[in-house]
Design goal:
- With 1053 residues, the protein is of the alpha/beta class.
- The strands form seven sheets. Strands 16, 17, 18, 19, 20, 21, 22 and 23 form an eight-stranded mixed β-sheet that branches.
- Helix 29 crosses helix 34.
- The N and C termini lie far apart (87 Å).
- The chain is built from 36 helices and 25 strands.
- It is flat.
- Helix 25 links the parallel strand 21 and strand 22.
- The longest helix has 47 residues.
């Protein structure tokens, strides 16, 4: 109540922002009115002047920042690097603030220029997606407000038809003048291409270039598009290009440049709906062994056995419900209902039974009793498997295990691999070779059994939880995922963890080989890399809390240019789906006869096909737009607004499509549609108006945004329109998340099959169910972000390594740090803590130097009368660093830098791929820690940190080894090696073609050693006599320094 009072007195944040923008709108319009007098060339010249003025203001700080970054790379001292790092961060913030304030100063003039450019383009025709389109747009005031919100890094919520595409041109134009490139991101290739071609005349008029990123582009076209001032593109393509850039092996292979400013169109779809989906670049794995084909018949048989069992329980249920049964058994009835619920919750007969409020209450009550008494496992023993629909999981029961283990009795008996290997080690009768053979055999058997159990789990999920034409479609012998939010196909994407292969086995299509992740990032973390982010959509305010928490993006609702006249009728709720479908067909026929276009929205391909079949029986001409008809999207949408048109569409039609009404659909003036009554009468059983587009929702989506998007197709820019949603208690949303009071309430009201309930309270109850689902999904996304944040921090470190290489930076300091860390770790591993020098295995240290650094040192070279750990470490570092400097003198600085860059790229890429696999395994299994009363997230963070430490250590060790053991051979040496190897003619050609023009880097088994100075003159070591102090020994004066750094500074070597 207090909040409402404060809003009335002071206004909410949205109204305050509108008031703040109004004076700027007036200023823009004043400048705009004076621009008409200028010639085109003068306007173009002014834009170039503004661009140069902005550069002049920013260049000084940019140059200072470049110098600081160069100084940071050349500095080795940690304290100095920390100081420079803090200064760099401060300067970056200063540059960001200066950029924002500078652009704010120019905003009124630039927006006025864009508006005047639109005026100058009026009446001209341009080709858009193969069609000539006449330019007829000049931004109106509310569009200017939306453009300012986008520039300020907000989400502009604008209704359908309010011109979001045009609005985006103004902030894109303004921010492109900085010269760092700006991106507009949308949901599919069609919209990206259309918008780029549609809006390019505004940018091209002033010499700004426009590029577009779409699926299937070649490298050169992609690189050229990113080099443009403004780049449009599909969301996943931006993410994949980022991943590909971080797999590149040279700077010439990079396409992206800067993450400065991006506007995300349909921001709720990209940053909410698709945020959970990671973008993954994968490749074939070395060994892909699975048993899906082998196990499919057994799983199909198991599903059939379960279905037969369910039919038996349903038969007993009908007996107990039969009014003529003199002795109904209510205990058996309740138990059987619960068994069917756990065995087949999607069974159509069971779903119909659950329409009875008393039966639904009976099931909930008996389930609560079994949970309380912890007797559910005993009940489940009657089943072959249990389906947990809400958790999207299937658990085998003992009966199911018995069926599947008929051929292999020990299939579900899994002994620990450690125990198996320990038994082999303890078997004294085995010879060493036989022991190794047994270990390999048992390890393979263990891995095969583990893979079989995993395949069984995924096949069960595929058969019981995933249905064709709902979660996926089968086209051209391939299983293609259908996006649950947009209804569009997602070619190239695959369900993870073997589930996609299980679906391929279920549908008897070719099972594609398994893949290994090479690079991955979620859309959440990709878009958070941008310095400035904004978004626009028709539905965002319901998710404002999530946008603020994860992306720091406030939502601003932009008022419509004219008031919306659409009438949204209350939901109609039926007991069963068949009654609902019949009611939908009746309303379609009613409007079709009156030549009013109808758009029917469905949540799945299956429902759209059902309604299509029913319409065909009635002889109603219609179009179907779903994942199977996506190639006709533009054509179908163009016809959807014509008189009498009937269009059935999945959620594809609710996102990014603009249905324009044909001639004769609107016959009255705008004013006549204002304030029409919402009531239904005998004369108008489906309400008024009779004009405009009518939207029918075949069921509620689990997200309110999707329903609002569908409704928003009607009533664009003041057009008349109506909408109505049809629901049934069999719908997934109502069945899984609807209030338990809805069904009993309908039964108490005496409703029977075919009857309908219509009331605002019921509509609100449905919205509450949607809200519960949204909150549940938000928690999932929030939890995912916590896990991915760990991965993202590691990703940034690894990709920073690669960027340093590809940008050609001098890596000497980093390599020297790696050498130091690698030798330090080796000493820590070989020398136990709190041990005496006499116990140290110095021979092992010498072997490590020979094997890893190719440096021949003897035990006597590293021993001393006063040997301790620090002294030993310093001696080893001296040898290593001296050898490193000698190698640099011999082969040249530039050649060694090239070796270092190549070594770092190879090692980082190889180790990162293995690390991603380890992280996937950790994430899959970490949830089991909850059974030990441990927080899975904390355990994940702890163990992932340990894995990352191991990754960094391996990178340091392998890079160090490659730097010391990689050598440069001349072409003459290569020819001699080939000659001596007696290679065939073909082999020689194949080998020579892979070589560099003059020289190559090649690992050799016996390369020259670099621990001696140039010229192979052996270093003369000092002769040790009793009273003389070693150069590396502590100085006798008591200073604590080494002798050579103190009193022995003037002694010669």
């Amino acid at each position: 109540m207090l909040e409402k009072i404060l809003k009335k007195v002071f206004g909410d944040k949205n109204s305050q922002d509108l008031k703040r923008y109004e004076p700027v709108v007036q200023e823009i319009n004043e400048i705009f009115s004076g621009l008409e007098q200028y010639e085109d060339e003068q306007l173009i010249a002014r834009v170039q002047e503004i661009k140069q003025e902005i550069a002049n203001k920013l260049n000084s700080l940019r140059n200072e920042l470049t110098k600081l970054e160069q100084e940071y790379r050349e500095t080795r001292e940690d304290s100095e690097r920390n100081r420079l790092d803090n200064i760099i961060d401060s300067k970056k913030k200063e540059l960001k603030q200066l950029t924002k304030s500078t652009l704010d100063d120019y905003l009124p003039e630039v927006y006025a220029i864009v508006k005047d450019t639109c005026r100058r383009l009026l009446g001209k025709k341009f080709e858009v997606r193969g069609h000539l389109v006449e330019w007829n747009m000049v931004p109106f005031d509310v569009q200017l407000i939306g453009a300012m919100a986008l520039h300020d890094g907000k989400i502009a919520e604008m209704a359908t038809g309010e011109g979001k595409t045009l609005v985006a041109t103004m902030p894109l134009f303004l921010n492109a003048l900085v010269g760092r490139g700006v991106h507009l991101v949308t949901v599919n290739d069609y919209l990206a291409s259309r918008d780029a071609e549609w809006m390019s005349p505004v940018f091209n008029f002033h010499g700004l270039t426009v590029g577009c990123i779409t699926t299937g582009m070649d490298f050169e076209a992609r690189k050229e598009a990113y080099n443009c001032d403004i780049t449009y593109g599909m969301n996943s393509e931006f993410g994949f290009d980022y991943l590909r850039d971080n797999m590149a092996t040279s700077s010439e292979q990079l396409v992206q440049h800067d993450f400065y400013y991006a506007i995300v169109d349909e921001v709720d779809s990209i940053l909410i709906d698709e945020a959970r989906t990671p973008l993954i670049i994968s490749g074939p794995i070395a060994q892909d062994k699975n048993f899906y084909h082998e196990l499919r018949p057994a799983i199909a048989q198991l599903v059939q056995l379960q279905n037969s069992l369910v039919q038996k329980y349903l038969s007993e249920i009908r007996e107990d419900l039969d009014e003529n049964n003199p002795h109904p058994n209510n205990d058996r009835l309740a138990r059987n209902l619960l068994l069917v619920k756990r065995a087949a919750p999607r069974n159509k007969a069971f779903i119909k039974l659950m329409q009875d409020g008393e039966l639904k209450k009976m099931v909930n009550d008996i389930e609560g009793i079994y949970l309380r008494d912890k007797k559910l496992p005993e009940l489940d023993e009657n089943l072959f498997y249990v389906v947990e629909e809400r958790h999207n999981s299937v658990d085998l029961c003992e009966k199911g295990r018995e069926v599947l283990s008929k051929k292999d009795k020990d299939l579900f008996v899994v002994q620990s691999l450690d125990e198996i290997l320990a038994e082999i080690d303890n078997n004294q009768e085995l010879q060493e070779q036989e022991r190794l053979k047994q270990k390999s055999l048992q390890t393979n058997r263990f891995m095969d059994k583990s893979e079989k159990l995993h395949n069984i789990s995924q096949l069960l999920r595929a058969f019981t939880l995933f249905e064709n034409d709902q979660e996926y479609v089968v086209i051209d012998n391939k299983v293609i995922i259908v996006d649950e939010f947009t209804g569009r196909q997602m070619p190239g994407r695959r369900f993870s963890d073997g589930l996609h292969q299980a679906l391929e086995a279920k549908e008897n299509v070719e099972i594609e080989a398994g893949t290994q992740t090479f690079a991955t990032i979620t859309l959440q973390n990709y878009f958070r890399m941008y310095e400035k982010l904004a978004g626009m959509t028709g539905t965002a305010v319901t998710e404002e809390a999530e946008f603020m928490e994860i992306y720091n993006l406030p939502v601003m609702v932009i008022p419509t240019n004219v008031a919306v006249t659409r009438i949204d009728h209350d939901d109609l709720i039926y007991l069963g789906k068949n009654d609902k479908y019949q009611a939908i067909i009746n309303e379609i026929i009613y409007w079709h006869e009156r030549q009013k276009p109808v758009l029917v929205g469905t949540v799945s391909v299956e429902v759209s096909e059902i309604i299509s079949r029913l319409l065909k029986r009635k002889g109603i001409a219609h179009n179907v737009l779903n994942a199977r008809q996506h190639q006709r999207e533009a054509e179908i949408i163009a016809e959807a607004g014509q008189p009498g048109a009937v269009t059935i569409a999945t959620n594809m039609a609710g996102r990014g499509t603009d249905i324009k009404l044909g001639k004769g659909v609107v016959e009255s003036s705008y004013e006549s549609y204002l304030n029409l009554p919402k009531t239904l009468t005998e004369e108008y059983p489906y309400g008024l108006p009779l004009d405009g587009l009518h939207v029918i929702g075949s069921e509620r989506h689990e997200s309110r945004r999707i329903d609002r998007q569908l409704r928003g197709r009607a009533g664009r820019q003041g057009d008349p329109g109506t909408s109505r949603f049809y629901l049934s208690l069999e719908d997934d949303l109502m069945r899984l998340f609807g209030s338990d009071r809805i069904a009993p309430m309908m039964v108490k009201m005496g409703l029977k099959s075919g009857d309908v309930i219509r009331h605002p309270w019921m509509t609100k109850a449905v919205e509450k169910a949607q809200k519960r689902v949204e909150e549940h999904n938000f928690e999932i996304r929030r939890e995912l972000l916590k896990y991915d944040e760990v991965m993202n921090q590691q990703r940034e470190v690894i990709y920073a390594y690669r960027r340093s290489v590809l940008k050609g930076y001098d890596l000497k300091n980093e390599i020297l740090e790696m050498i130091t860390e690698s030798i330090t770790n080796m000493v820590d591993d070989i020398i136990p803590s709190h041990s005496y020098p006499e116990e140290w295995n110095l021979e092992r240290i010498c072997q490590w130097f020979q094997h890893n650094l190719n440096l021949g040192i003897a035990v006597k070279d590293i021993t001393s009368d006063h040997l301790n750990r620090d002294l030993l470490l310093n001696t080893l570092l001296e040898y290593a660093l001296s050898a490193y400097e000698n190698k640099e003198r011999q082969i040249g600085t530039e050649q060694l830098r090239n070796i270092e860059r190549r070594a770092l790229l190879e090692v980082v890429d190889d180790e990162w791929r293995d690390h991603l696999h380890e992280m996937d395994l950790l994430k899959d299994g970490v949830y089991l820690r909850a059974y030990a009363n441990k927080d899975p997230l904390i355990e994940y963070k702890k163990e992932s940190f340990e894995l990352f430490q191991g990754l960094i250590t391996r990178i340091q060790d392998n890079v160090t080894r490659k730097v010391f053991t990689t050598y440069v051979l001349s072409q003459e040496q290569i020819n001699n090696l080939l000659k001596n190897a007696n290679l065939t003619h073909q082999d020689i050609n194949a080998f020579l073609n892979a070589q560099q023009e003059q020289q190559m880097v090649q690992n050799m088994s016996a390369p020259p050693q670099y621990n001696n100075p140039v010229g192979e003159v052996e270093k003369v070591r000092p002769v040790k006599v009793a009273p003389k102090v070693g150069r590396n020994d502590p100085c006798p004066c008591g200073s604590g320094k080494k002798y050579k750094k103190c009193c022995g500074m003037n002694d010669s070597e």
